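Cross-posting from the modeling subforum.

Setting up a comparison between two proteins and wanted a second pair of eyes on the formatting. Protein 1 (sequence, then structure tokens):
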Amino acid sequence: MKRHKGPEIVIIITIILAFANFLLYDHSAIAITDVTLEEYDNTNDTYNLSYYLRAGRTYNLLDCEYTLYDKQGIAIYNDSSILEKTYSGSHTIHKNIIINTSTYSLNDIKKIDIKVYDGKINPEENNSNETPKHPIYNKTVNLTS
């Protein structure tokens, strides 16, 4: 007598697909790519930070915080962008940054750190158990001169 293995295969495939869905959409739903920092207007000390935010699902509100660091690792600029109703797909982010060029030039900026939080956040805020809140995604880009 031959036993049919159809139901077992269907169950196994369903479990694999459910696990893959969990990994893709609950843990890897955000990515940041193509980070660039360019001189926008040298008479106005203005630079343009641009990057792609790629979302694997819809978010009501994302807080994208970025920090620029100099050669010694000292933070020289910090700001954020609030994105409301971010849908699944790729989103181009452009941010004009004004830096005092008497102190820093584009060549002095060596690292950009971008953190993405699910919801508007103050980094000093803590969770209910007094641990700091963590970003859902963090990208560090080292710049070359």
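Protein 2 (same layout):
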Amino acid sequence: METDPLIAKSPARGLKGNSGKPESGLEQIDEEEKDQTDEVGQVTGNFGIWQFWICLSVSMVKWVDAWHHLAIIFLAPVTEFQCAEGDYITSADQCFVINNGTYETCHKWEFDTSIFKQTIISEFGLVCDKNQLPNVVQSASMLGGLVGSMLFGVAADRYGRKKPLIIGVVGQLVAGVAAAFMPTYELLLLFRFITSVAVGGTMAVSCVLCMEVVGGKWRTIVGTLYHIPFNFGHMTLPVIAYFTRSSWRIFEIAISLPSALLLSYCWLTPESPRWLVATGRGEKALPILDQAVRANEREFPADLRESIRRSPAIVKKKPSIFDLYRTPNLRIRIIAAHVNWIICGLIYYGLAQYMGRIGGNIFINVSLSGIIELPGGIFCMYLMDTFGRKKTMVASKLLIAASMLLITQCSSEDENATERIILAFFGVVGISTAFPTLHLFTGELFPTVLRNVAIGSGVMFSLLGSMVSPFVLSLVTFLLLINRFRHSSKYLDFQEKNICAKSKVQKLRRNSNTSGKMLTIYS
């Protein structure tokens, strides 16, 4: 029987204090569970046709999840607008209008509809003093993913993997479609949050299910390849956005309805036999194992069948995130891991949204960034095996840093943003290598009993980074615009003409004969 490389490389000493003795009984209980669930591996094998179809079908949930995670790029794209309030003047200013010689806040705008006919920005007026509200939608979505991963993680341990997975699929289908019919921004925010709770739950549970049906070296391979459908979702999202650009509501429905296909999990996906055995439900695991034996053309020895049928439930102490800080050795590792997870979450979702604001064709930019992620994620397996985890991680972070710094030095006069797009693609390659490397590296830094907690907490911290990424991106965009306009003679000339025009308006307004009449202004 093959040995799980993650188990073989786990630094189990991390749970031991100065005395060299374990500080809790977690390791012993973990070994008991491993002994029982390894019987499942002896029956099904580490990987075969049975595992292939389960992993393939279950990982498809990541395809739809990618659409929901990145939807804000096309729900709230950068949209040019101008104040269009008043019966007698259209202001050249975006947020203010001149009335009786004074500035007043604008409440009505005209939006550029050359690409997107209707977005949440144009429908709900999310501009000027409300320009951060689209970012709140994205942050609420990331918060929903965080809440969903925790809630569904607890539910998966208590009720199994299959039921929470199906509930999550139903949730993202119903809430996603419902969000498209919300008449107000507040209700849209609520249902986007609910949708993301379900999305976060399906991502967490599907990953656990895939890891539990395979064994040995295949856990490392499947753990990396499992994320590929997310890349396909990233690539295809612009296609959906292009054909539904007439309305954000149609777009929201289009990315939600495919979840109905995932309801086939009710019939196609079995419960995790390892979970059934570990919870004393060995009798229910036998029919599932029989299917695996037939599909993989293996044998099911009578002694193993009887042992699995009689397997007792394992009452174990659940490790918590606080166990990761138990010893100085563990504290250093988990702090370093959490910092890296935050940075990766911030960079990934920041870059994803930046591709929609960088200039050029938004559909091509976003699609190409998804295409570039695919070889990056696969190539990182070769890099990790050749150069090791640490060197691969450091190199990918240096590539990201270099590309981001060089973007700030690019000319702002490049209308097609060619230089910025190319540099951003290098950043995408870096983050697509860093994320799977960090996922595997985190698992190897901690003993088996704490591995799931370490990775789970890491994902939580990456979501925290993704929650602030929209606001960081807005701040950076604002600073770059200031720098661009400050050095733009065209902008200064426009401002000069604008001031002259407003001055003429004020002079003409003082003439009572023109009060309430349409004014034609030439500057």
